[in-house]
Design a protein that fits this description.
By secondary structure, the chain is an alpha/beta fold. The protein has one domain: Rossmann fold (3-Layer(aba) Sandwich), CATH 3.40.50.450. It is built from 7 helices and 7 strands. Helix 1 runs parallel beside helix 2. The longest helix has 16 residues. It is globular and about 45 Å long. One of its GO terms (biological process) is cytokinin biosynthetic process. Keywords: Cytokinin biosynthesis, Hydrolase.
């Protein structure tokens, strides 16, 4: 079983309008704290991001926020975090998130959330990391995306084994358990970090 000391959560800096998404964000934050898993996230105190972080803190968990300097005002930084890391740009933020985390969970969000998910799963596909990547399909939010990914396999643009890199669940506890049980696929011998 994989030890998950830190999980990075990608999600929206907006609240959205689905109470189930908010409830799942609250449950995730509490569950991470209860399982003594440190939350790594984008440092905002607003939106779905803020809900996850506040619940983790309220349940005695550790929370590391990572934010680029230019977003500090826009995303309204949470000042009660265990640790706040400031980067110079978005790319450094994502590199730091990947470096500090043992796995990743994506909740509902917008363009930024999808961009983070697809970058981290592309890095896995390229063999740059072998960490579990979870997608919390809260109230069917990602149903259409999952259908699109399956179409990419059908049309020959995505290999089935690469689609399997994404662990999809609609239950927080089941998703975290699947991430702990995750066995990464071997990285092809021709694929080395200095070639990517």
């Amino acid at each position: 079983m994989k030890v998950l000391k830190r999980i990075c959560v990608f999600c929206g800096s907006s609240e959205g309008n689905d109470p189930q998404i908010t409830a799942d964000a609250i449950q995730l934050g509490a569950t991470l704290a209860n399982q003594e898993i440190t939350l790594v996230y984008g440092a905002a105190k607003i939106g779905v991001m803020g809900q996850v972080a506040q619940q983790a803190l309220d349940h005695g968990g550790k929370v590391i926020g990572i934010i680029p300097e230019f977003l500090k005002v826009k995303e309204v930084v949470h000042l009660g975090l265990t640790e706040l890391i400031t980067t110079t740009n978005m790319h450094q933020r994502k590199l730091k998130m990947q470096e500090l985390s043992d796995g990743f969970i994506t909740l509902p969000g917008g363009f930024g959330t999808l961009e983070e998910l697809f970058e981290i799963i592309t890095w896995a596909q390229l063999g740059l990391h072998q960490k579990p990547i979870g997608l919390l399909n809260s109230n069917g939010f990602y149903d259409d995306l999952i259908e699109m990914l399956q179409k990419m396999v059908e049309k020959g643009f995505l290999k089935e084994e690469n689609l399997q890199l994404l662990l999809v669940e609609n239950d927080v506890e089941i998703l975290i358990q699947r991430m702990k049980d995750y066995e990464p696929t071997p990285v092809p011998k021709w694929l080395k970090k200095n070639r990517t």
